[in-house]
Amino acid sequence: MIIDPGILTDRTGKVHTIFSVSLRLVHRLGYNCKVNQKIRQTIHPELAKAFKKLDSPQKIQAFLDSLPINLEKGGQTLRSPLRVLQSKKAHCLEAALLAAAAFWWHGQRPLLLDLKTTKDDLEHVVALFKNRGHWGAISKTNHAVLRYREPVYKTVRELAMSYFHEYFLEDGRKTMRSFSWPFDLRRYGTAWLTAKDFLWQIERDLDGSPHFAAANKNQIAKLRRADPIEIAASKLTEW
To answer: How far from 196 is each of 86, 100, 108, CA to CA, in Å?
Structure first.
């Protein structure tokens, strides 16, 4: 579901302008919440050991940067945070799940942000966090673009749109088309933290969750292609 900028649809299908939505609800999405004691008491020891060390966004990002990118050479995967630790590699969504889990351990809500593109490009998922009322993002990528975002953005839209200009194909065409509402993983309880099976249901639910248009048709029609130097820089790979 893609929603026009400035429009929000609730669960009943009723349409509101974003400005009519309670600001308290929007801000509460990212504020520190009371630490889930159940997680602290029941979480797998391997996760607990890792999360104790990953006590800041900078440390979470540095840890994920140290993991080789999961190129899925043996087939598509979507590993749980525990299996990511054990396999010692991750792609963007696997890394976002681990980052969200670490934030949850330390008292923030486990939130994902999905960035959707045209059909000829790949979507990207980041983990959201909030610091002093501003949004930031943890991102795992193999390239010089679509990376970590400092918590300096007042709204999720502002953060999401920071990715727009650097989301392009090798011919320079810009491809980002929409972004999701913060997707809260608490709806799945705690089983996803250590699941042995791939977490395809989370991917399907995230993909089907409400998304907001990044630009309208007139704006898309007038987009300028990325410069050759930008395209060259985007081909740098980390792994």
So the answer is: 11, 18, 25
